[in-house]
User: What shape does this take?
Amino acid sequence: MTLTPINPQQTNEATQVPDALGRFGRFGGKYVPETLMPALSELEAAFQKYCADADFQNELQQLLKDYVGRPTPLYFAERLTAHYARPDGSGVQIYLKREDLNHTGAHKINNALAQVLLAKRMGKQRIIAETGAGQHGVATATVCARFGLNCIIYMGVHDMERQALNVFRMRLMGAEVRPVSAGTGTLKDATSEAIRDWVTNVETTHYILGSVAGPHPYPMLVRDFQAIIGQETRAQAVEKWGVLPDILLACVGGGSNAMGLFADFVKEPSVRLIGIEAAGEGVDTGKHAATLTKGQVGVLHGAMSYLLQDEEGQVIEPHSISAGLDYPGVGPEHSYLKDSGRAEYYSVTDEEALEAFGRLSRLEGIIPALETAHAIAFLDKLCPQLSGNPRIVINCSGRGDKDVQTVAKFLNSSESSQ
Amino acid sequence: MTSISDRFQSLRSQSQCALVPFITAGDPDLQTTAEALKVLDRNGADIIELGVPYSDPLADGPVIQAAATRALQKGTKLDDVLKMLTNVIPELTAPIVLFTYYNQIIHRGIENFLQQLSQVGVKGLVVPDLPLEEAESLLKPASELGIEVVLLVAPTSSPERIKAIAQKSQGFIYLVSVTGVTGMRSGLESRVADLLQQMRQTTDKPIGVGFGISAPEHAKQVKDWGADAAIVGSAFVKRLADGTPAAGLTAIGEFCQNLKQAIA
Assistant: This one.
C-alpha cells in the first residue's frame, strides 16, 4: 500500500478541531510564558507551510518507508482471539496495529521524524525533548543522529533508573540525557524542565514535544503526524475484511498513540473509540495516573485539560508502573472527546497490565511495552460485555524490551513478599 | 489603599524609578513572610510582588522553584497566604502584587479568586503563564474589582505584539529582560535598552524590568535605560532563605536599601 501524505487541512476538516486559538471546545489553548508565543506561531506557520510542500512530503514519506519501516502490519492475533473466544468458538476478533515494529520500537518515531524535518527547514540546529519511558527520547535521539543535529533529552531520575536501557540507547546515538530530579523525577518534571530550556534557548532550539499535549499547535501537530496509524489501519481493514473496525483500543498517557489511531475515525460513528489510562495501584488509592477518570479541569504544560490536582490546585504526582503513562495531565483533545462522549476512557491497574504483558508474550510471542499492556489488559473487562464477533484493533504502540528489568524486579519482589 | 497605577504616577512625578522586590510566600514560613513584607516596605520597596508557591512553576529558575517547593512542604495554602495578607497589608505603604500561575486561579474560579484578592487588598496580579491571547477572561473581571493585571513582554515579542500587550496591560508592563526563566545572572543584555526604547514609542504606561536583575548596578542600569521599575526576585529569595529567618530578614532589609540607593 502507499503511504498517505500528511494533510493538516484535510485532518482539520475531518475533526474540525482545534480552532484558530488551538481550542478543542474548552480545552487546549496556549498557556505559556510570553517568550514562547512567537515560537509557537512560527511553528504553526511552518507546519501549515511544509505539510503543503511536495519536497517535505516526499522526504517524509520516503523516510517513513525506508527508515522507519512503514506501513506497519495489521496483525490478526489468533491465539489471543482464541483466549477470549466463547465456548462455541465465537467472539471478538483481535487485531494488533504493529507500531512496535517501527524503527526504535514504538510509534513515537512517526512524530519525531516529521518534527525534525520541520526543525531542519526552520533552521534550528539544536533539538530538545522530554521523555518518560524513553521511547520518545530514543526516537528523538535517533532522528537527530540521522540528521546530525545537537540533541538534549530531559528525563526524570526515577525514569532513568527504570528505563536504563533507553538511557543507554540515547547516549549511544550521541544525545545528551539530562537528569531531572525535581518532584518525583518523572515525565511531568522532565517536561517542565524541557519547557524551561526552550524558554531560554527558543531562538536556536526546536522542542520536539512527544505527545498530543502541551500548548497549541503541538496537540494538533503531533496528532496529524501520528494520524498515519489510523489511516493505515483504515486501508488495511478495508483490504482485509472490507469494512471498518468496530472498536479501536489504545493506552493513554499524554495520548499520542491513541490519538494517532483515533483521528481518522472520529467522524465514523460506527467505530467505538476506547482509551485506557493507568490506574496504578488503584484509582481510589491516590497512587494512579488516571487523569480522565479522576482529574479536574486545569492547566498544565501550556494546555487546559483534565489534570490530577489536589484541593489547592497543586498538581498531584501520579503513579504508574509504566513510565510512559506516569503523567498527571492528558492531551486536550482526549478531554474534548471524553466530554463530548465520542470516546470512552477506562483504566487498568499495574497488576492487570503486568498480567497482560505476560499473556501477550506467551500467546503471541510479542512482548509489548508496559504502556501497551494496559490496552491489552482491558480486553479482560471488555470482551465479556460484547456480543457477536466485533473486530477490535489495538494499537500495539511499543515493544517491551525496555521493560523486562522493571517487570522482573516487580515479579521478584512480589514473589519474595509472598 | 494606593493602586499600582497611582503608585507609579506619584513616583513619576518625582522622577523616581520604583523598586519592586519579590519573595515567595511561606518560605521559610508565613510568619517570616509577614515580617519580610514589613521589612521590605520600611527599606525602600515601592511595590512588593508576592509569589504564591506552585507545584509546577514553569517560568521560574532553580532559586524560586526551590523556595516554592519548601513552602509547599511546609503546607502553605492560598487561604493562609490571604489571611496573612489581611493582617499585614494595612501596615504597608507599598501595594501588593500577587504572582501566581494560572491553574491556581481557575482551580478556585476566576470570580471567586479575584473577590478574595480584592477583599484582602491585593492591588495587582502577575500570571506568568497567561499570555495576551488567554488573558481576556481575567482582565475584565479584575478591573471591575480594582485589581490590575500586569501582562508581560519578552525579548522575542514582535513590535505588533508589544503594542497589543501594552494596550491591554494594567498597572504597568512587565518587561522580561532575558529569554529565560527567573534567576540571578551576571549581567544584563544590552537589547533590553532597545526594547525599552521601542516600548516607549508605543506606550505611556510604566514599564518594569525583571528576570535576572540581582545587583544594585543592574537596577541602576535599567533605570538609566529608562525603566519605571526594577523588579528583583531570586536575589531576595536567596538572601531570605540563607541562615535563620532573623538573619534572612536583616539581609533583605540591607539589600533592599542598597538597591533603592542605586536607583534613587
Notes: The two ends of chain A are 51 Å apart (CA to CA). Confidence is low (pLDDT under 50) at residues 9-15 of chain A.
